[in-house]
Amino acid sequence: MIKILLFAGLAEQAGTQAIEIDMEQATTDEIKASLKEQYGLESIDTAMIAVNESYVKENTSVSSGDTVAIIPPVSGG
Amino acid sequence: MEERYSRQIRFKQIGEEGQKRLADSHVLIVGAGALGTAGAEGLSRAGVGTITIIDRDYVEWSNLQRQQLYTESDAKLRMPKAMAAKEHLSAINSEIHIEAYVTEGTAETLEPLIEKADVVIDATDNFETRMLINDLAQKTKTPWVYGACVSSQGMFMTVIPGETPCLSCLFEQIPVGGATCDTAGIIPPAVHIVSAYQQAEALKLLTGQKEAIQRGFVTFDVWNNSHMKINVNHVRREECPSCGANAVYPYLQDWNTPKAAVLCGRDTVQVRSESLKRIPKQELIKRLKTIGKVEANAFLLHIFYEDFRIVIFNDGRALVHGTNDVKEANSVLARVIGL
Predict the structure, then answer these.
(1) Between B36, B127, B173, which is nearest A75 by CB?
(2) Sign of the alpha-carbon dihedral angle for A21, A26, A29, A30
(3) Contact B137/B114 with Cβ under 8 angstroms?
(4) Which parts of the sequence carry Glycyl adenylate (chain A)?
(5) How distant, in Å, are the alpha carbons of A16, A20, A64 from that of A52?
(6) What pTM, to 2 d.p., does this model score?
(7) Which fold does the domain A2-71 belong to in CATH?
(8) A-chain residues within 8 Å CB-CB of B239?
(9) Is the pLDDT of residue B209 over 70?
(10) B contacts of A17 (beta carbons < 8 Å)
(11) Which of B26, B40, B46, B114 has the smallest number of Cβ neighbours within 10 A?
């Protein structure tokens, strides 16, 4: 089980803050693509990704037990 | 001075010595909206000796719900935010020096201000200006605190040139199309949490306690009760164009700055922006629908916002009808698109 945490507008669009994916292994790109398709999250491409609370930039492999946080930067001030 | 700051001096991490350092310090606050007024008030009360504040807008009624320095009279008089802020801050603390600039934050206007500052507080409402601050901060080796908020969420990160990753290390391109306060709304607690962190970080830096700063990117949602600190220590890149060994400060380069032009006789400003091109159109339409009716065809989309009519072309151009003022047009686009 891979746990996905959605923040800001992404959580609102998806209608949930946490999603569990029943997979042993996946890459962060695969996860993004599947969320984009399933929930129509067009803006997911500009979001920051953190795996187990550590920032990842490149496409990264994650396994069951990992938590992937997807955080769109906000601009208001 | 003793009595006024006694409770802060009693806080042992600041003490007499720290208080003296604050009095000799200079903070630049870029933006006098919600984060700007909260940060400016806190740091003025704390006794930071010089505070410079720059903002391009004037006070409107919709600001009063969260932009804590402003009054109904400021909104009635449409006072420029920087001037209104200066007036209120001077009434709060007459012992400090406040400088106010009513102008747009550009490479030209910000560079001389950042050069004089010990710490910069980011209180802008758009990423174009943040990336400018990021480059100028690296160029002048000035620490700054990124902060942003929308709806019930916020985030912040302290950037110390030469030590921590910078905003360009995290975002290779300007993040575009994010929610803005005008599209997703905002509640004051989200503002105050971000600002409280920014002020704390500023106090640590100004009193020479870099070791105490928050190393990481913090994000929270005060309505949904989440808080996460993301480790970014490994993200600093040698090849980063803003802070790497061969930094070129990409956002200070002419090709990267949004081009605005007044269209003569049309009461219209045209803004051309590379990042506007990259926002997925469907996403933009969805977002703008929360403000008003969006009409779109294959080439452009069209929306009414306040007294303005905005047309956004697929090629990265936006026309803001209803103004001849570049500053105002940029401000409208910042509020509507976060550009």
Answers:
(1) B127
(2) negative
(3) yes
(4) 77
(5) 19, 14, 12
(6) 0.87
(7) Ubiquitin-like (UB roll) (3.10.20)
(8) none
(9) yes
(10) 224, 226
(11) B26
